[in-house]
Amino acid sequence: MNILLWHQRYLIHILLLIVLVTMTMVTPDNVQADPNLYLAEDFESYSPGQSPLNWLEQDDNLTIGTFFQTITWAGHKTYGTSLSQSVSYYAHYNGMGALAWHDYEIRGRLYHSHKNGGVGITFYSQVPNGQDRYYRLGHYPGQPGFLLIAHGTDISDGSTSIDIETQPDSWYRFRIQVETLSSRVNIKAKMWLEEGMSEPEDWQIEAHDAFSSRIVAGTVGLWTTEAGFKAIDDLMVYSLDYVPSPMPAPTLPPSFPQPALPNWPIGLFDIPLVEHNKLQSTGFDTVHQFNSTQTLPQAITYLNSAEATSLQVIQNMPSSSLYESDEFWINWVQTLSSYNALAWWYLPEEPTDYGATKRLYHIIRQYDSQQRPAVTYFPITNLSGWCDTVDGILIGSFPEYWNVVHANIFARVDLVQEACPGWPVIGTPMFFDANLDGTGDYPSPAEARFDAYTAIIAGVKGLHWFSYFRGVGLTDLWAELQTISLELSSLKNVLTSSPIEQSIQPQVLSGPTNSPQLEGQVYNSIQSWQAEYQGNTYIFATNLATDMVTARFTGLTNWTDSVDVLFESRSVDVVNEAFEDVFAPNEVHIYYLAGFSGAPHKSYLPLIIKK
């Protein structure tokens, strides 16, 4: 034999062996030496946006496409999708031989961010082969727990549901065993919340498929549908003879102290940066660019413009990027947090996806070195369970747009404080017309004044009108809001003063004693809030009724001087330690008692009396 030819063949064999070993090493189901471990995938080796090796993605027509991605979500590298259409999407492992897998156990974690999202694990699936045949354990939108179903066959007997509370922004751990016998397929499953629950001792599902159509082998995959982000992580598939290591302990979500809001902001939504200089002669100090698609360079330009005009900014977290990766949002927060004009963060408003909103809140708390608060605008009906996603809540009332009375703003602020006790509320009065084009009805100057001061009496910690862009052309309303902003700016020390006992109380002498129904609530017609600053007392009072009311204010112990009515160029006399005044519908008065300081300093909210 030719020695040179022998050496060449030997080297070729060595190179082929190296190639085969290398190919084996990069295949996820072969990273373990044990042949009984079919698949072990935590997606940590992939970059955000990268498709993991040997996964096939299909829609409910089994059309192949790109529907999922590797993404860092709330600190976890995971594999999922935020596609929210009312159709099914599938991602199946399609490595060599996977369609022939049988007699195996699956374990891993499933996640859904939105209460209306569906997510599940498929097994014995032939979907990558173009066949709509599989078993699936999933949570379905609008239904409790998890349900076992079969596609292309059926479950002949046994238990098929897991009665577990399903919550948005939750990881669920699962174990599923599937076994092929000569006459049937056996399925066992258990599912539990990763946080706050331990693995159940018994199988929660034990079911069988004895039909002739039963599926005897197949791969595993992820199924999703409808709203929010849905994902899978820490997936393992192994033969029933394999003994896996214990599941890792869950990573508990961090907790954060609640930062304080800025010092009683007086602001405007939806104001372009070219208009910033027009606010310099007003009392407005806070602005917001109402834009769901704002880019990082645009945000920086806006912040620089605001700082040049001594304005603070409520900084957008643009809703169009809600499902971007952690890396995207960490860069957003870290980059913008260095700008002095940034006063607070504005999460995507009227949120419906709890998990996505909570994730952004946690990123802000972790990566804003200045610890600015995060706020957003909520509808009243959406507050239950959402308090821990924000540091403050914006709530509005738009009477002409909603066809409600102006006193409605009082009830809406009150209801928010009931839903989230201790959370500061920012009032959002109406600054636009009912037709949104300048032709519809809108608040009169007197009604705008009533809206602002009634919200203060209800307990707001700032006001932020919606919206400059839609309202600036309503010249009489815009002129009044500038006047109100200057009044509020002059009263900031009063508005931020320490709470005191509400010792001066109104009594109705004539007119209605009750408000109309406001958000299902009825209140005393005259509501007031008492504050003290530098030894002087201020009383803010409003008439929630729809008719004229005469009220008497008592509790002015040892006080004989008259009482000034601020911004009205008049005063009222004090008789027998009390004074009287008249309130038209939608009217407020602010009383000033120079040198009167009779109320002890305690922690009191404004006194709100309901019927």
Could you characterize the architecture of this molecule?
There is one protein chain. The protein is of the alpha+beta class. It has three domains: 21-239, Jelly Rolls (Sandwich); 266-495, TIM Barrel (Alpha-Beta Barrel); 505-593, Golgi alpha-mannosidase II (Immunoglobulin-like), CATH 2.60.40.1180. It contains ten helices and 32 strands. Strands 1, 3, 4, 6, 10, 12, 13, 14 and 16 form a nine-stranded antiparallel β-sheet that branches. The chain has an eight-stranded parallel β-sheet with strand order 23-22-21-20-19-18-17-24. Helix 7 (445-458) packs parallel to helix 9. The longest helix has 23 residues, at 3-25. The radius of gyration is 32 Å and the shape is elongated.
Overall tally of domains: 3
Q: Segments where pLDDT lies below 50 for 5+ residues? A: 1-31, 601-605
- Oligomer state equals single chain
Distance between the termini: 108 Å
CATH homologous superfamily assignment of the largest domain: Glycosidases
Computed over alpha carbons, the radius of gyration is 32 Å
CATH class category of the largest domain? Alpha Beta
**What is the count of helical runs?**
10
CATH topology of the largest domain: TIM Barrel
What's the β-strand tally?
Answer: 32
Structural class, judged by helices and strands?
alpha+beta
Average pLDDT figure: 91
Main sheet: strands, sense, barrel: 9 strands, antiparallel
Shape descriptor reads elongated
Q: Can you give the helix content as a percent range? A: 10-25%
CATH architectural name of the largest domain? Alpha-Beta Barrel
Strand content: 25-35%
